[in-house]
Amino acid sequence: MARDKRNGISFSKLYTFSCCKKPARDEDHAQIGLKGYSRVVYCNDPDNPEALQWNYRGNYVSTTKYTASNFIPKSLFEQFRRVANLYFLVVAFVSFSPLAPYSAPSVLAPLVLVVGATMAKEGVEDLRRRKQNLASLGNRVLQDIEANNRKVMVYGKHNTFTQTRWKNLRVGDLVRVQKDEYFPADLLLLSSSYEDGICYVDTMNLDGETNLKLKHAMEVTANLQDEESFRHFRAIIKSEDPNEHLYTFVGTLHYNGKPYSLSPQQILLRDSKLKNTDYVYGIVIFTGHDTKVMQNATDPPSKRSKIERKMDKIVYVLFSALILISLTGSVFFGIDTKHDIRNGKLVRWYLRPDKSTIYFDPENASLAAFLHFLTGLMLYGYLIPISLYVSIEIVKVLQSIFINQDQDMYYEETDKPARARTSNLNEELGQVDTILSDKTGTLTCNSMEFVKCSIAGIGYGSGLTDVEKAIAKRRGDKTLEVDNSSFDMVDSEKSVKGFNFRDGRVMNGYWVNEAHADVIQKFFQVLAICHTAIPDVSNTTGEITYEAESPDEAAFVIAARELGFKFYRRTQTSISLHELDPASREEVDRVYQLLHVLEFSSSRKRMSVIVRTAENQLLILCKGADSVMFERLSKHGRTFESKTREHIKRYAEAGLRTLVIAYRELNEDEFRIWEHEFLKAKTTLGADQDMIVDELADQIERDFVLLGATAVEDKLQNGVPECIEKLARAHIKIWVLTGDKTETAINIGYACSLLRQGMKQILITLDSPEMEALEKQGDKEALAKASFKSVERQIEDGKFQLGSDKDESMFGLIIDGNSLTYALDKKLEKMFLELAIGCDSVICCRSSPKQKALVTRLVKTGAGRTTLAIGDGANDVGMLQEADIGVGISGAEGMQAVMASDYAIAQFRFLERLLVVHGHWCYRRIAMMVCYFFYKNIAFGFTLFWFEAYASFSGMPAYNDWYMSCYNVFFTSLPVIALGVFDQDVSARLCLKHPLLYQEGVQNLLFSWPRIFGWMANGVFSSIIIFFLTTNAILNQAIRRDGQVADYEILGVTMYSCVVWTVNCQMALSINYFTWIQHFVIWGSIVLWYIFLLIYGALPSTFSTTAYKVLIEACAPSLLFWLTTIVVVVSALLPFFAYRVFQTRFKPMYHDLIQRSRLEGLEDGRSELPVQVKITMHRLDANIRQRSL
Known about the structure:
Elements: H1 2-6, H2 15-18, H3 26-29, E1 39-43, H4 49-54, H5 71-79, H6 83-94, H7 104-131, E2 133-136, E3 139-142, H8 144-148, E4 151-155, E5 161-165, E6 174-178, E7 186-192, E8 198-202, H9 204-207, E9 213-216, E10 235-239, E11 251-255, E12 258-262, E13 267-268, E14 273-275, E15 279-286, H10 292-295, H11 306-338, E16 341-342, E17 345-346, H12 365-379, H13 388-404, E18 419-420, E19 434-437, E20 444-455, E21 458-460, H14 466-475, H15 517-529, E22 534-537, E23 544-547, H16 551-562, E24 565-570, E25 574-580, E26 587-598, E27 606-612, E28 618-624, H17 626-629, H18 641-653, E29 657-665, H19 668-682, H20 689-700, E30 705-716, H21 720-729, E31 733-737, H22 742-751, E32 760-764, H23 769-777, H24 780-804, E33 811-815, H25 817-823, H26 829-837, E34 841-844, H27 849-862, E35 867-871, H28 877-882, E36 885-889, H29 896-899, E37 903-905, H30 910-950, H31 961-971, H32 973-982, H33 988-993, H34 999-1002, H35 1009-1034, H36 1048-1070, H37 1076-1098, H38 1101-1104, H39 1110-1115, H40 1119-1146, H41 1150-1159, H42 1171-1188
Parallel strand pairs: 19-31, 19-35, 31-34, 32-33, 33-34, 35-36, 36-37
Antiparallel strand pairs: 1-10, 2-3, 4-5, 4-6, 6-15, 7-13, 7-15, 8-9, 8-14, 10-11, 11-12, 16-17, 18-37, 20-21, 20-30, 22-23, 24-25, 25-26, 26-27, 27-28, 28-29, 29-30
């Protein structure tokens, strides 16, 4: 097989491929040996003593955050960057001094447990990341351990190739890489299975592009093909130092005493894949972290959710409260201490103030008060929830697991589930105000299908596209008039990917009966010849598939094949087709001599091939955009121009991509003169080489004869219109940033329900006769000023239209790329943003990747709204990283967008469930969880304050040391974690049925400052009720069997029991969705308290101190203890219960209305909602709409 290929294609002889291997500029190579260009590689001689002196990095790669050596110090640093953890660390150190109100171990134990648990979680996640595989369109880019241990063939000392692991590769090693294998390092291509040293490379993991790249070895090394030829191969490479530039390389190969300039065309980058080539040989230039892919491996921007940022502020509020109550206590303590000795008399004689230490010295009350202040800072530290951060991290990880395992977001066709690539932003998914979306590959499939064409002014192709169906629906038409409606429909026997064309006039060879059969023949010959696709014939089935640079090009070649022009072989100088002969109506083989290929580029917007037919005709065949092709037609070649233009406009309105097809017969003398100049230009080095080559290509690409136009459809993904409609009902604004024409974008907007019936359009464009006239004059400054003024005026008109609307109509804003350039100017961006956020939908046409990122930044910073960007290609990376949340579509454009995203889904329609269901749940859970955390800590912490006030601010804690240490860690932590993982206010079905519920997160109703302070106040009220009811019920009451009254020990246990019961029952009241897990952790936490008290109290009194047998001997046998607990708990919960009853009845939130309708059996669709509920929902909807204006 290798032999066949070596005797086959020599693409370097064609312009397409020889021009790709652009030589490096002379000035670049002059820098070899200077700073930044100092790398020296000894080829096939890595053990050379001089090579060893350079001490280059090995090929071992680690993308993990931690290593065995730095895990402990680095992880500890990460933990104590948090202000709460740092506070507890300081308290732990101070707890060894007499200032501490409790023992040092009781402080250290929970701190070590919490920090240790967080470090363990970090380590496990990092280890999992170290071992995981990242999916890439069916391939696997093995990371870390698996990548380092993958094997490759290396030329060894015994002059044979042997297997070795990737991590053992060294700079200078000679390696052999087989077909469909990844390159283990950055290599210099020496030779390949093709005779002239070409190979095909899949760079999808580097740049997200699915088309194959062609690489070409230097002629001087292309003949190195076997082990014997490498026996005496020695060379030296001098090149640039490691850098992140994927598309540049400067270096020189010194071989056989001669220098040869190297270019990116000879470089094979790590993590790219060898395709359509049996094998290649290469020299390792860069290894490990010096490779270009690793040089590009930067961490994505750090993103934090709004709740997390607000949580830091709440912690600061609690620190302020901590300082305030400590200061209050120290002031009262200082006053009481100073008055302990008055006129020489002992006031509180039982405290013996005359023999007190410095901490209670009446003679130095100010110092004693200051020291008491420090004690208070430690005593009231339980206001700060030590387990908050680790609990939230655990909850977010578990939430991410549920997202990953959601079967309703699994795409079976490509075997791709949803993936939460970060857990930091789960709750942010429930607060998205604006979605900014790419179109191609995101809303559409990026799988082009040939559906229609115009040949000789006649339209071919039946059926309606998604856009045409939307147009018919919008107009209320039952049928939509299409070209040539009177023809027979042809049913296909099987579906062909890339081909959805149906027309009985041209299929199955019937085109030979058409009036312009010769034009039709030439049209499909152009499609079959004018391309750079490679045929791949299956050895088993004989079927031909094509490797093309773009889905469009593949669709053209497939269409030609299906209509009788089968491209089946490409050689170094020819293209072979199986064609239907119009005369004999039989299939014949035709060979076209391939002379030159003038490749497509974004600036040229066209592609041409020059071929010689079997009849010795010289032809140039061309396809390109209508904007450049019509001006290149000859006078006699415009016969079908008006009809073709009409068809192209109609195709564009139907959302189809169009290209114009043309050809010209060349004169032999003309071609010979042109070819001489062309070959001379492409072999001449210089900075202006590309410009000269383009000018010469432009010279011959003229005077074409128009054949027709193609129309391919990029179909909408399944469920896109329904998803967008549902998101719109949730009042999420959707912006589409596309490169399409304005007409195409508008019609696709209707097809996907982005633009809806009755929606008023505001169009901002610079496509006007005035602008065109100024552009023709060539005065760029005048054109820029006029464009700026025009955009400014149109924005002002749009704002006036918004402000003057009294019917609460919906508005859609459409702006083209040129206008957007001016709208993003500093002087206009504020006006543009005000207009855009007042519209329900926004479409930005002809947008560049940079404009996408700028628009995203404008919405995020200018409006202060939570933005979500979604895209599927490398050109969407800037937008994804700029947005608050980036969602990547794992589609046909590679994994670049996914790698830069926070969440990955396979289809756009899954965004509905990701936001409306998981986003709403996660936001509600995290908001409730954080509020509850602060509530339970305030309820607990303030009982300490009331007790200290009761005890003359003596600094004595109300509870045993270990009671306090275990409060946050054992007795109240699991219920709040269960809340964060499992609670649902409404089911997934009801979330999708009532998308307006999503606005609770957008408006931040559950984590607003009034709600946060309300929970804090609830905590304070609960502490007051618990303390004062407990003290009044227990103190001075005989509670032991021997008649002894309740003492400090019993009061502490009773009050602590009330706190544990209250905060856990508060959780039970707050939960909407009970599972057995909630029941287990809530009631289990209460039971755990009594088990702990029983075991701890059974320990020797020297250790258990005040807890020694207090439950068995005093509390458990006492009916008063249990009655007090019940009364206090019910009393503490009553205010919240009453508030919720009042709110649910008279001031219901949206989820309350849905819950009420569900409980009343109205969600089965058989009953109407009550009038009051309908009115309330309508009012909510109107308020949201008014808020967005």
